[in-house]
Amino acid sequence: MTKFRNRHDQLIRDGEFLREWFSNESEKLENDWHRLEDLPLDLENMRLAKAELHLREKHILRKSNRLNYMHTFLLWEYGILSAIENRIGLFYSNANEPKEKLTTKIPGSSARFVLRMIFPKKVFERVFAEPISDMQVEYIDALSKGNTPHAKWIVARGRMIILATVAYYLFSSTIGKLIRDLLKPTRMSD
Amino acid sequence: MASPYETVILNLLFREGELFGLELIAKSNGFLKRGTVYVLLDRLENEGLVKSKLKDAPKGSKGPARRLYRITGSGETALRESLAKRSQIDGLLGLNGGAI
After folding, report:
1. Minimum CA–CA partner of A164 in chain B
2. Per-residue pLDDT reduced to its tens digit, A24-62
3. Interface check A155 vs B, CB under 8 A
4. Does the beta-carbon distance from B22 to A134 stay under 8 Å?
5. Residue A123, strand partner residues
6. Which ipTM did the prediction report?
7. A131 vs B43: CB contact, 8 Å cut-off?
8. In terms of C-beta density within 10 A (0-12 exposed, 13-18 middle, 19 or more buried), how is residue A78 classed?
9. 0.80 exceeded by the pTM?
10. Which of B22, B39, B48, B55 has the most beta carbons within 10 angstroms of its beta carbon?
11. Which residues pair with B71 in a beta bridge?
């Protein structure tokens, strides 16, 4: 990065120097043309002086053209370097900036998705959707009050409750149901 | 005869009318637990003792639609039978009633 910056500074300095040199030379030539008109020279000397100034003019013009080309080249190089520097800067800034999450899932959305896939719709809606909704409502309520530690505790407790609900549902729909079915004849005999 | 937990749910619904799951837990003074109440309510609903309907969150409060529970006629009959049997048992054992 420092290397690129130094090169940029150098290009800018070179450009300024060339522009200044060219304007000085042109100004000098113009002054000489004016001075020549005022000089008391005979025709032959005037012709020789004019030829000298024409030569200087051609030389400056040639040099100015060369300078223009060079300046264009420098501008082009400057543009390329700027683009590279911007790209590198962007890369470094992206690499150093902490990545922020733009969207955050509400706690329980994964559990909702998984349980909906595992259990029948009716069972999910009656048994599992409610404790998840309880947790989400309480979580949002705690966050809206600015009580983040309580919100975190609600999520931790909510996860345990969901697990307990799943375990209790599985137990009551298998072993529990078996026990209840075994007890039914006893109830009828009562 | 309904289990003690089921009897508590039926009794609360009979007394209070319509209740949400969390309200049932709160009104049972810790007798009903969050991990079991919805399984019990599902079982009672399957037996036709309780009915539920989805109710939208009140205006101004955010959240999904919640299930509101109420006791049915069969539920009231089952509650009366259960309470009678329990009072009989309590009488035989010399108890004066518990959490129910």
Report:
1. B35
2. 777 888 888 888 777 777 777 888 888 888 888 888 777
3. no
4. yes
5. none
6. 0.81
7. no
8. middle
9. no
10. B39
11. B50
